[in-house]
Design a protein that fits this description.
seven-stranded mixed beta sheet, elongated, alpha+beta, 11 helices
Length: about 425
């Protein structure tokens, strides 16, 4: 049974809100650097809250994360380093929670999460016909505004909303730039701002995706001795050693753990031709669909790195220019982690899946690829169902790239899905037909 609108047209005020949000630069320090302009996240959140107030929303929380949010081994190294370099790191990236209705138990609450921070760059915002152009159009200021339109339609047609059923909206920072939501969504989840149903507003082509991968970043480093080009065997050749390791890992690591993705990249030793570099680093980004898969992939990398070094010794020990590198390979190579230990989301709940079907929202096929977003922080939260659901497509709509856009038709179709989902949740929770 599907009730509610197929689409919800964006009102002129909602179109203006999206343009206003895109005008406000909200790329954080991880994107623009410590010397870059401070993000206007608080202003964007206040503008959104003002629009939401016309529907009855009130501000439940608006503050920076607790300092403990950037402590612990699961916090990416880039976050720790940026926070150490700037005393205003957290203060300029606050989070906001809006609530519709009185405080209600979690089982009677729906939570929506939208991040208002963006990647850096992008063209000046504009509306060309029915297409919005600008940074955040699809990731994720456009979905955030379409969410309000959907809630507007749901409130008009379902009186239980805001009375018997609560709605929370998380407006978070720290989703982009590799922050992984540690001082945004994770902080709000720790504070208990969650629901029985939790929806993350990210582009999924209008399908409900109950999965979110996580990723870890490994760094393989060589700590050896430089030498001159006239005597290349006098030191350690980090370029050849890391090149060998990169090629071995690229051949061996993908596919060892099912459904994981391996990106071998970021090899750097030096830029001059007349010296042998004894130091360097190789970066790998490793995405995984479940926490168990992440643990297995971590162990696989450690095994294959050891195997790569064994092969290097075997192949290069007899070559004069590389004999010293081969002899010392195991002692000059280290592996450390810039990011690891993050959870992955893989949600299953027959009740929620039936509700989604009744709302006429297609569920992503089991083999549809997932991506990494803040939904990972709801993994393992008891008595709740979490999924990613939004308009458009990260690739097709050029998120994170020049030319990012969102079509009004996609936003309006998404708003209709939000309205139907809220209606079905309210009826199912209240026992209505």
């Amino acid at each position: 049974m599907t009730e509610g609108p197929a689409t919800v047209p964006l009102l002129p005020d909602e179109r203006e809100l999206l343009l206003r949000l895109m005008e406000l630069p909200t790329a954080g320090p991880l994107e623009v650097g410590a010397a870059g302009p401070p993000p206007r996240l608080a202003a964007a959140q206040r503008a959104y809250a003002k629009a939401a107030a016309t529907l009855g929303f009130t501000v439940l929380h608006h503050a920076e994360a607790d300092p403990s949010a950037i402590e612990g081994p699961e916090v990416p190294a880039a976050v720790r380093e940026a926070a150490a370099a700037s005393p205003d790191f957290l203060a300029c990236q606050p989070n906001m929670v809006l609530r519709l209705g009185p405080e209600l138990p979690r089982e009677r609450t729906v939570m929506f999460n939208a991040h208002l921070d963006t990647v850096a760059g992008g063209e000046p915002p504009r509306l060309d016909g029915d297409r919005f152009h600008g940074r955040g159009a699809i990731d994720a200021k456009g979905p955030a505004v379409a969410l309000l339109a959907g809630i507007r339609a749901a409130v008009a047609g379902t009186p239980m909303l805001g009375r018997d059923i609560g709605v929370l909206i998380q407006l978070v920072s720290g989703e982009e730039g590799g922050a992984m939501g540690v001082f945004g969504t994770r902080d709000l989840v720790r504070r208990g701002h969650t629901g029985r149903l939790n929806i993350f507003c990210e582009p999924t082509g209008g399908r409900l995706l109950p999965r979110s991968t996580a990723a870890m970043t490994a760094r393989v480093s060589v700590h050896g001795q430089d030498t001159i080009d006239d005597r290349p065997g006098g030191g350690h050749n980090a370029t050849v050693l890391l090149g060998h390791v990169a090629a071995h890992l690229a051949r061996r690591l993908p596919g060892l753990v099912p459904d994981t993705r391996v990106c071998v990249a970021g090899l750097h030793t030096g830029e001059l031709h007349n010296r042998v570099y004894g130091t360097g680093r190789l970066l790998l980004n490793l995405a995984y669909p479940t926490t168990a898969a992440g643990t297995a992939l971590e162990a696989a990398l450690e095994r294959e790195l050891a195997a790569a070094l064994d092969l290097f010794v075997e192949e290069f020990a007899a070559l004069p220019d590389f004999a010293r590198t081969a002899a010392d390979a195991r002692s000059v190579v280290t592996l450390d982690w810039l990011k690891r230990g993050l959870p992955a989301l893989d949600a299953h709940d027959p009740w929620a899946e039936r509700l989604v079907a009744e709302a006429g929202i297609p569920l992503a096929a089991p083999d549809d690829p997932a991506f990494t977003c803040d939904a990972i922080w709801l993994a393992g939260v008891d008595d709740s169902y979490t999924a990613v659901f939004g308009p458009g497509d990260l690739d097709a709509n050029q998120a994170h790239a020049e030319g990012e856009f969102a079509d009004a038709a996609d936003l309006e179709h998404y708003a209709g899905g939000v309205a139907r989902l809220l209606d079905r949740f309210a009826r199912a929770t209240n026992g209505a037909a």
